[in-house]
Structure formats: structure tokens, C-alpha cells
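WARN no homologs supplied; continuing
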Amino acid sequence: MPKRIRAGTLLALAVTGLALGATLAAPANAATAEAPGFLKAADLPPHPSSAWTAGKVTAGVPEAVEQDRCLSMALGGGSGTWYREFRTDLDTNARQISVRSSTTTAAKGRFSRLNKDITSCAARIEKADPETEARLKDYGALRVEEGAHVYGLHTVTSRGASDIRLLSVGRDGRTVTVVDWGQLGGFRDAPVKAFRKTTVTAVNKLH
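OK structure emitted
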């Protein structure tokens, strides 16, 4: 756009832009307003040397999840889905994804599917990439609302990269939530006790 432009034209463009922005923002704000409760940064397992930062609650599914071998089949899209991402200044990150189904029966089915997909994803990772070793640990169920379950997934590549991931699935009525935590390291580096507490908080906040 030329630098020299009449003030009246600029004002007209600004007014039009504001009106358009309000039109576009309304559905997004409405979609976020309908979201269930989400974790806050302080609810994540404490990091020994860096504070957590929380992103905005956003409608939809993050692109990274659409490519995820553990979660993509049950969380690959559709309406009624929101997520929030968390990060530290170092190598630790986390994400919460929540899906509200049309019926309780559908939510039960999604909860069951997610648990099955997570317990079988280590084998799928190794099949897709024979140079990666994957091992899953089942950390058991939690008694909160309609139930939750916690898992650990450790992967090591042929190049020596070692990553630990904690995953949990919980349900309250028609809403299912997944909490996904990860960093460099192995099972010994995973804050399982604190993550179990985080999972209970996440499910309780779904009301």
C-alpha cells in the first residue's frame, strides 16, 4: 500500500477492519467460552529450574496431535475439541486436550479407544520406525469422576535420543481429557506422582 493515502480512506479501512475483526472473533470467542475447564500452569508437575508458561485455550486439535501415533486416531479432528499447550524454558513441555461428545455413550467409547491406542502405540512406533525402541509402562487407574488412567512411554532412537512421556486419559460425563507431558530422559526422570495429581486436577476441572 502507498505510504501517502488520504486520512478518510485510512479511517474507512480501520472501521471496516474493526467490524470484520468483530465478526470473525465472535465465533472463536464463543467456541472458547464453551470449553470445559483446563489446567493452569501451576497445576503441572513442578519443574526444578524453570516455571511453566500456559498458552491460550484454543478450539480444535493441534497439528502435532494429528501426526501422533498414540493419540491421532481418537483425537484426529471434529467439533467439540479444545487444547492448551504448556512449556518451560528448557526441554519440558505439556499439552491438555479435551473433547466433549454428543452423548455419554460416545464419550465412554472415546475414553476406551484412547486407552487402547495408548497401550498399543509403543508397538506401532517400533513398526513404523525399526530404529526406534519404545517401551510403555502402565501406572494404573485413578479414582476421579468417571475414571482416569496414567501411562509412561519411553523412546530411544538409534542416534541415542532418549525421550520420556507421561500420558493420562480421564472422563467426566460427556467430556474426555488427555494430559500429555514430555521431556528428554527416561522413566527415572518422570514425575509420576506429581503427574497423577495433575491428572486428578484436570478431570475435576472438566465440570
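The two ends are 49 Å apart (CA to CA).
OK
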